[in-house]
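so my prof wants the structure for this chain in the tokens format not the other one, which i didnt know existed until like an hour ago. anyway here's the sequence
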Amino acid sequence: MNVNFVNRFSHRKTIVEMKIKTNHISAVILTGILATVSPLVVLAQLSPKANLDSATACYTSGRFADALGYYDQVLKNGKESYELYFNMGNTAFRLNELAQAVWFYEKALRLKPGDEDATFNLGLINSRITDKIDQVPLLFYERWWRSFVNLFPPDTWSMVSLILLSLTGASLLLFFQAGYMWQRKTGFWLSLTFGVLLVFSISFAWKGTQRIMNHNEAIIFATTVTAKSSPDASAVDLFVLHEGTKVGINDQIGEWLRIKIANGSVGWIKEKSLKRL
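here's what i got, hopefully its the right format
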């Protein structure tokens, strides 16, 4: 796809109704205040809404480090959303912090799987990191399953499950209460169809929730790290990874983690080398 990175690298709306296009006068005033007041003092005193507005003002004026600081304060206050992580990914990219940008986009996609903008930006950043690892091809049913799980966030799949549960119940009621045979047959087949769909939707919701809750994936944050054959600094070197690479975590012994990369290779690295998703 021949699309310029900057053109598609959009700054999105965040959780507390924050817009990138704010009132010009208020944005100028806020930017001036932020330029003269210590960011640490401001961070400690602002509400989540004010932090988001401050982040917007900093981002539009090119003060990306300050913008990321305000966004981070929102996270520390317990506010989390796809939009917030997306904006943090954009801001980290502007600072050329590629590992951080990858981590933020991955977090955004956990909350909103399959989002076109986050997937696009993440793909462009992955093209810039050092490691180019070929992924082990998925079997057709694994691709099918993953595509359905990523079709909606877990909350949406849960709502779909409630709707299907109601439809299944209504169909069963029709089956047991109908006075004509054709009505009972219709109720039977509808209840069977909705019941099967219900099982699948519950499975998709559970799998999506499990992916968000589990911390068995991580992003390499060290500039370079050498994977070992065992959890020992003197063990045999297996391969070298660079910042921004995504890994899976299979086991842990003390400060050592057993990781697996996209091509199926496994090795041991120290926990301080990465950041869990």
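also thought this was worth mentioning. The chain is about 55% helix and 15% strand.
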